Amino acid sequence: MRIIVSPNRKGPVIHPEIYGHFAEHLGRCVYEGLYVGENSDIPNINGMRTDVVQALKYLQIPVLRWPGGCFASEYHWQDGIGPRESRKTIVNNFWGGVAEDNSFGTHEFMELCRQLECKPYINMNVGSGTVQEMMDWVEYLTSDVQSPMTQLRGKNGRKEPWKVPYIGIGNENWGGGGTMRPEYYADEYRRYQTYVRGLGGNRPCRIACGAGAGVPDPGYGWTETLMKLAGPHMDGLSLHYYVISGDTWEDKGSATEFDEATYYKMLRRADYTDALLRGHEAIMDRYDPKGRIGLMFDEWGAWHAVEPGTQTGFLYQQNTMRDAQIAAITLNIFNRHSRRVRMANLAQLANVLQALLLTDGRQMIKTCTYHVFDLFRQHMGAEAVDIGTDNRYLESSEGLLPQISTSASVKDGKLHITLANAHARDEARISLRIDSASYAKASGRLLAGDIHAHNTFAAPDTVGLVPLEGICTKTEPLGTEVTFSLPPCSVAAVTFERQHATEHSK
């Protein structure tokens, strides 16, 4: 497989927020996954699981979206402030009909973001909420002026305002967020965003609810209407897309038991993200040719059937090397579309859908997807560079799938290349040319395994990162030739460091 990288042909910066995440009040994501309370025998700081926070801090996660998702459309923020013993218990109608005691609310979320050192992204309730309610929440969070809301914040233990750089105005308002027509939501968005004011020096990015994309409807009509009617009033427009194995939402297959045909089908659907982005970007470019408005892909990932014996509404699923491939393919696509894509949020952080981490009591394991984010984190804040692949294509029921997925970037004198070999059984021999003699010192890391391989609480290290062996480099006057092999169903990151001039002249 021939790959050519041109480090001097630089594109846009890969926004760190592309590597963002999502935590919804859904199943065991927030409760048990992230928050156990100060009195738990599970080690914690201010209620946040120490093991989980440490694992996520290592990834340097840039932004976290909360409280939903669908849950946001029934969430009333004042239920989640004040003494926990006096907070209202409600029914989580969207996810399992279980009791939600609101012990994790605004202050707890902001504390989690503080511990993670990430930016908060708060999704406002447009489905069942009001403009006044949203306006009060923004004031409570960010105002530095004496008012009833800031006095209430002080009474609850926080004198200084927080910084909230991202505010989402509604979630999936075409569905569970109100079953709205795009024209109606565009008017609602215009009304709500008027009251998202920059208080206390905080100028939030206002994100409009975008389309729910899929096959056969990619959601272009929603994007067209929103850009036409509300484009000048937004800073970002969201997009949601999940990869499923079936032809309907009711026909999702197992996370761990599948054949090669289903494996390739889901990977091809992940690869469809590229065409999906090109379509939405073309619409946005017509109304916003200067690229002011960011495309915020704030829900994405693989959605399988829940694990046997678990509650349907909790969306708990295992995470195999197939999911690692889906993550790598998608992140490579986001990197290549960073001109318009400013944020993406994997669904979800822990114990739900394509999670980074799974917990069971005091135990925690890192999933295959966690390791992919580890491999890719060097791209955050780097400049994308041109990379071309003489690809081979694999047959799937959804069409042809590129065998090799790639993206490349440069930062701090280093060239980072991420690759995924989608073939279930065959290795890929890579012949890589770097159009620069400056980069020669190479190192790499590898994630590989059978397509069904995954980590469990009994065997937490079945799949993990190892050094990528056998990298051979040959420096020539006009470039560097590199060869190595990628095992079947593998993801790799290779880093090249600049040579010093004296070394290059030898």
Structure description:
The protein is of the alpha/beta class and 506 residues long. It folds into 2 domains: 367 residues, TIM Barrel, CATH 3.20.20; 121 residues, Immunoglobulin-like (Sandwich), CATH 2.60.40.1180. 24% of the residues lie in helices and 29% in strands. The protein is built from 10 helices and 26 strands. The strands form 6 sheets. A 10-stranded mixed beta sheet has the order 23-22-26-20-19-16-1-21-25-24, covered by helices on one side. An 8-stranded parallel barrel has the order 2-5-8-9-10-11-12-13, surrounded by 5 helices.
Note the main attributes of this structure.
506 residues; alpha/beta; TIM Barrel; Immunoglobulin-like; ten-stranded mixed beta sheet; 10 helices; 26 strands; disordered C terminus
Radius of gyration equals 23 Å
CATH architectural group of the largest domain: Alpha-Beta Barrel
Q: Could you estimate the helical fraction of the residues in percent?
A: 10-25%
Structural class category:
alpha/beta
Number of helices: 10
Mean pLDDT comes to 95
Overall spatial form: globular
Q: Which fold name is given in CATH as the topology of the largest domain?
A: TIM Barrel
Largest sheet: 10 strands, mixed
Runs with pLDDT <50, length 5+? 501-506
Q: Which sequence of strands runs across the widest sheet? A: 23-22-26-20-19-16-1-21-25-24
C-alpha termini separation:
30 Å
